[in-house]
Write a structure and sequence with these properties.
Blueprint (H helix, E strand, L loop, with lengths): L1 E6 L8 H18 L4 E9 L1 H12 L7 E5 L20 E10 H11 L3 H16 L7 H16 L6
Parallel strand pairs: 1-2, 2-4
Antiparallel strand pairs: 3-4
Helix pairs in contact: 1-4, 1-5, 3-4, 4-5
Length: 160
Amino acid sequence: MELAILNQQDKVPVLADLQEMMGEIVRICWKQQGRPGSPEVSIVLCDNEQIRELNRDYRGIDESTDVLSFPQEEMGEGEEVVLQLSSDPAGPVLLGDVVISLEKAVEQSQSYGHSFEREVGYLLAHGLLHLLGMDHSTEEDRARMREKEEQILAQLQLTR
């Protein structure tokens, strides 16, 4: 597994435990989805202003959000994610980037009454599932995605 964690903010401390948890979430999510090979993913940690700019530039929504996913392979309307598989079954699979606003994660953890770690874990699991082709455009899809997110978090005892 190749994991790059890029901390581009200075408002919320990023401790080694948080980075280790993020690595575990990537491993658990990959295993849960039964994918071959080894995932390569970048996690960008930013603040509300940085994610607002990305949201505006890439989605046309000029407001901050909590998490954004940028698949390695861009999808067109109605297309499915096609992961870049290595010819080696154990080789790397390029997923893309997950961008998380740690500032928003702090706000939401306080609002929802659970830990900051649980919120970051949830946002990362959500973003990874998007990179793996899941979506929540229908109620059925949303329920299926939420179930997978909760299964991932439960393995690390990151409950509400």
